[in-house]
Design brief:
The protein has helices spanning 61-76, 84-94, 103-123, 127-130, 151-163, 178-187, 203-215, 231-239, 254-262, 273-276, 279-290, 305-316, 360-366, and strands at residues 7-17, 27-28, 31-32, 36-45, 50-55, 138-144, 168-172, 192-196, 220-222, 245-247, 268-269, 295-296, 323-326, 345-347. It is of the alpha/beta class. The chain folds into two domains: 7-124, Enolase-like, domain 1 (2-Layer Sandwich); 129-366, Alpha-Beta Barrel (TIM Barrel). The strands form three sheets. Strands 6, 7, 8, 9, 10, 11, 12, 13 and 14 form a nine-stranded mixed beta sheet that branches. The protein has a three-stranded antiparallel beta sheet with strand order 1-4-5. A two-stranded antiparallel sheet has the order 2-3. Helix 1 (61-76) packs across helix 3 (103-123), helix 2 runs antiparallel to helix 3 and helix 9 runs parallel beside helix 11 (279-290).
């Protein structure tokens, strides 16, 4: 009798991981961020192959877990894991009223990555090989510093990043130009300097800061305006400066990012694989964005299977996408050293699928009950 291989279970596993930020713990969404959150997605199949993914967890982790296990799992359990791309595309259509962003899209992203992991394991190939072969075996990382309470702590962490071999540094700050000035004075003119404003400014505020940023030879201005999808004001801002502008980690779909790129409002679009719906959604935007002036710069402020999926995607893209290394110590990362840059560079995993499974001992120790 012919046995049909099928998905048997889909489970979300929330982790709360201790971390050292290099200073006081930063605030996030109005609360002190005491831990780094990670939402693993585990897919088990009747063939015995287990796949791992990651879904965006911040603030809405319990909602994403509920969406995955109560909405999405019943639609895919019993379906063949071999039809993973068609399965994800069908999910997006079936759930079109709620799948174009937010918790459902985050949950689909986790499932998508896990199914790619399974496909690679069954084929004995890495995800980059499934995509057509890794064009790069290593990728440039940049130190994505956290938000610090004062310039002194910022300077300490800038120096620490330089000592670890990074040639590019991004700071997170929306309080004007003081911290950017300190960062540039600390790292010198030969290191790339970027700033992420996290959608904090009006157009008038951003225009006021531009002259000083240009004096500081800023290499990228990320998400400067609120709301982040305000294409009209971003176009005005871009017309006033030669500083490259980046945005898109909060986009709801690949189509939204293609439209963003075509609008000429930004120089870099930043899809986040664990937010936007997974690997398949990003693949669908590669060719359309290549026909625009914008480039893809993958967003990667996370540490789990989503980061490994990003490394595989970046190894395949026609132009190199620098990889964000969220600058904190995470001693209990279930992915281990493969998820950290070495001397400022990431190594693309070569094992089947993602190239590494999460450490079950770390999961057992830090799983949120």
């Amino acid at each position: 009798m012919l046995t049909i291989m099928a998905i048997q279970s889909v489970t979300a596993i929330p982790l709360r991981l201790p971390y050292d930020s290099g200073g006081p713990k930063p605030e996030f969404a109005g609360h002190t961020r005491t831990h780094m959150e990670m939402l693993l997605v585990k897919v088990e199949t009747s063939s015995g192959v287990v796949g791992w993914g990651e879904a965006f967890p911040l603030i809405v982790g319990p909602v994403v877990k509920c969406a995955l296990e109560t909405v999405i799992a019943p639609l895919v359990i019993g379906k063949s894991e071999d039809d993973y791309q068609a399965l994800i595309a069908d999910l997006r259509r079936k759930l079109l009223l709620v799948s174009r962003g937010g918790p459902i899209a985050f949950a689909i992203a986790g499932l998508d990555i896990a199914l790619w992991d399974i496909a690679g394991k069954k084929a004995g190939k890495s995800i980059s090989q499934l995509l057509g072969g890794a064009g790069r075996t290593t990728l440039t990382g940049y130190a994505s510093l956290m938000k610090y309470p004062n310039a002194e702590v910022l300077a300490v962490n800038c120096r620490r990043a330089l000592s670890m071999g990074y040639k590019a540094i991004k700071i997170h700050d929306h309080r004007g130009t003081e911290h950017t000035t300190v960062a540039r004075e600390t790292i010198g003119d030969d290191i790339h300097l970027m700033i992420d404003v996290n959608c904090s400014w009006s157009l008038e505020q951003a225009l006021g800061y531009l002259p000083r940023f240009e004096e500081l030879k800023l290499n990228m201005l990320e998400e400067p305006l609120w709301p982040p999808e305000n294409i009209h004001d971003l176009c005005i801002l871009k017309s006033k400066t030669k500083i490259p502008i980046a945005s898109g980690e909060n986009a709801s779909s690949g189509c939204a990012l293609v439209n963003f790129a075509a609008s000429k409002a930004v120089d870099f679009v930043q899809p986040s694989v664990i937010k936007i719906g997974g690997i398949l959604e990003i693949l669908g935007m590669v060719k359309p964005i290549a026909a625009t002036p914008a480039k893809i710069l993958l967003h990667t402020a996370y540490f789990g299977p989503g980061l490994l999926a990003t490394l595989h995607l970046a190894s395949f893209l026609p132009e190199e996408s620098w990889i964000e290394d969220y600058f904190c110590e995470l001693p209990a990362n279930p992915m281990g050293d493969v998820a950290r840059a070495k001397n400022g560079r990431f190594i693309v995993p070569t094992g089947p699928g993602l190239g590494k499974d999460p450490d079950p001992l770390v999961i057992r120790e830090y799983q949120e009950k």
